[in-house]
Each structure stands twice: as structure tokens, then as C-alpha cells.
Specification:
405 residues, alpha/beta, Isopropylmalate Dehydrogenase, ten-stranded mixed β-sheet, two-stranded parallel sheet, 14 helices, 18 strands, 21% strand, binds NADP nicotinamide-adenine-dinucleotide phosphate, binds magnesium ion
Amino acid sequence: MAKIQMTTPLVEMDGDEMTRIIWKWIKEILITPYIDLKTDYYDLGLVHRNETDDQVTIDSANAALKYGVAVKCATITPNAQRVEEYKLKEMWKSPNGTIRAIMDGTVFRKPILVKGITPYIPTWTKPITIARHAYGDIYKNTELKVQKGAKAELVVTNPDGTETRALINDFKNSDGIVQGVHNLDNSIASFARACFNYALDAKETLWFASKDTISKIYDHRFKDIFAEIYENEYRQKFEKAGIEYFYTLIDDVVARVIRSEGGFIWACKNYDGDVMSDMLATAFGSLGLMTSVLVSPDGKYEYEAAHGTVTRHYYNYLKGEKTSTNPIATIFAWSGALRKRGELDNIPALCDYADKLERASIKTMEEGIMDKNLAAMSKLPEKRVVDTETFLNEINSRLEKMMAG
Ligand code: NAP
Ligand code: MG
């Protein structure tokens, strides 16, 4: 069988630990036998980030902007212990944070649903995708402790030098605390466009919520920017695609999400997204089945797994043990990126391959072949716990048949 040819390279961002090992296996076992893989390769492993003073991360993000599609392996975000372990020159920043800032992107997380792995909410029969605005609010706050007898005011120095003041609180009877937060119209607009584009791409309805009844200027600004961009740029496209944009209050949306059957995108302000994405990931079941894609406001994509480098498994691997690590979210990062490349370059065979790779992966799990953590959650009557390489080979034996037929 002739291998599928690519025209534009895929930006490949390699990573760390167990996921770096799995990355190589996925390419060897599931991709290069079928595709004449063309990538623009960046090694984001911590050793190489340290050697290049993290320049490689910046270069890889710029390449993603240039070519439009990237696939990323999980990477270590160093802490003090990692600085010691890897003898780092500095405690380098989170690569995901750096890439997100350069791409001005929004992260969408979507679970893979598999028969036999039931979400904690039984009515969720379709995935719920969550998007988190990753700029500002309490994550870029300024906060102070305040003494009894103090008065706190909000002061804005205007471009003409005049001041606008508003009282926050008179701390007459007690010590207290005060916090200043901000956001940017530009950032909110980029977030809105990324969400609208993603919804059109996925052909799913978009929900957005804030607390505009209480926060009549701050949260209301989010609501207004979304509404304005929707009316001016997206309403017609949404109507044509048969999907909706729908705004409500955050507490209302939480109730609706729980009662829903899934199948929509939930856009969240920064804090809501931080909390709710963990809630959804837990309720859907497994980190090994959570995909993630970073989308820029002008439609550039970076696909990855939501989980980390699975350090504990890596240390076992280094001791020569066979690990049972779930490769599925990383496989879906590759299939997502290859499908997008196929769509942009008009290579139907590449999209067809991506579909089959995903179907073969799901079929393998639905036939009871899975990693140890997934098996512990699965309600299938017959299960076979396999090591990572066997898992990949089992997927390939199904993929081979699909590709041949
Ligand atoms: P993690 O790598 O996601 O692993 C946490 C635990 O979840 C694992 O020990 C394992 O549980 C389970 N798990 C996660 N993915 C799995 C998979 N594919 N198959 C089977 N089990 C899986 O998170 P972490 O241990 O907090 O972080 C490890 C490193 O990853 C850190 O250095 C962190 O900076 C980095 N990280 C990177 C990203 C990213 O690049 N996007 C995201 C998060 C974390 P058991 O041990 O019980 O089997
Ligand atoms: Mg969180």
C-alpha cells in the first residue's frame, strides 16, 4: 500500500518522560507505516529547553503560527525539585504557558467517550468541551491586607492625567483584605473568536456564562464583547451551520450542564474554567481520555493530551519494567492534528486515516483491551490489561484491517 503523502509539514513538539517514550512508539507503530510523515521537529524535552535557554519553545510556537497546525507531547513544568534533578540553569516557565501566550490561544478540552467507561453523570452521552479564557482576572491580581481604620479606593490614572476614583470599602470596624483584578478587551475578543471558530469547526452549540447581574461592568463587558462579535461576525455562519450561541448566568449554566446530555461547548471565564475543567475531567472519568487543543483567534491549532508526562510510570520504565500507560489522548492529539492538516491542504486520505486511527483506538478499548487505570474504571465484563506497547500493537492490528478494507 502506498503511503499517504503530506504537502505542508506538521509542527512536532516533542516532550518528556513516559509520554516522550510513547510519542516515539506511536510514530513507529501507528503513523509512519501509513503516512510519509513530514514534520518540522522541535525538541521541547527539558534537557533541550535548558540547552537552548528555552528558545526552542518560542521557536516551536512561532512555527505553529507559520504552518497553522502543531502536535505537542506533554512536557515537564519545572519546580525546585526538577531544577535539582535536571541541573537546570533556571526554573524555566511552563512551555504551555509560553506557547499559549505567543499563539494568543484558548484551550479546549474534550473527553473521548468509550462504551464501558460511564461518566459519573449517566445522562452525559455526548462529550462536553470546555474552553477556559486564560488571561487576567484573579490570575493577574494585586492584593493587599488592610488595617482597621484604612480606606480602600480604586484609582485609575487616565491618559490625560486626571484620576477616576471609586470607594472599595471603608475598613472602619475591622482589618480586612482587598484585591484588584483586570482584563483586556483585546484578550476577551480573542477568546470569543477562538470559541466561535471552534464551535463552527465542531458544529456544536456554544454556551457562555458569567455573573453580569452582580458584576454590572466587569462581567457585563465579557457578555457585551461576545454578543457584539457574534452579531457582527458569526450569527449568519452559525445559522447556516445549524448551531447556536447562547449566553446565560454562570449558576444557571452549571445546573443546565448537569441536566444535559452533552454535545456542546462551554466557554468559561478564567476562574470558572480552572474549576469546572477539573470537575468535568473527573466526572468523565479518565485523564488518559482527555484531549486538549489550543486554538488561536485566527484559526491556528496545537493539539495535545490533557495529562502530564506520567512521571511515576517513567521511573518504573527506567527500572526496566513494562508500564501500562494509556496512549489514547496522545494518539488523538496526532489524529486531530493530521486531520486538520488534511482539511487545510485538501488531502482527504489524511482525514480518512485520522478517522480510522480514532475508530481503531476506540474499538480496541471497547473490546476490553486497555491500560490498568482504565480497566479499574471500566464496567466491561471481560477486560485484558496490557502494557503500553501491546496496547499500541492491538490498535494497529485493527487499524491495518480498516486501512486495507
Ligand atoms: P500526570 O502526568 O498527568 O499524572 C498523574 C497521574 O495520573 C499518573 O501518575 C497516573 O496515575 C495518572 N495518569 C495520567 N495520565 C495517564 C495515562 N496516560 N495513562 C495512565 N495513567 C495516567 O500529572 P503529574 O504527575 O501531576 O505531572 C507529571 C509531570 O507532567 C509534571 O512535571 C508536570 O509539570 C507535567 N505536566 C505537563 C502537562 C502538559 O504538558 N500539558 C500537563 C500536566 C502536567 P497512577 O500513577 O496512579 O498510575
Ligand atoms: Mg484547575
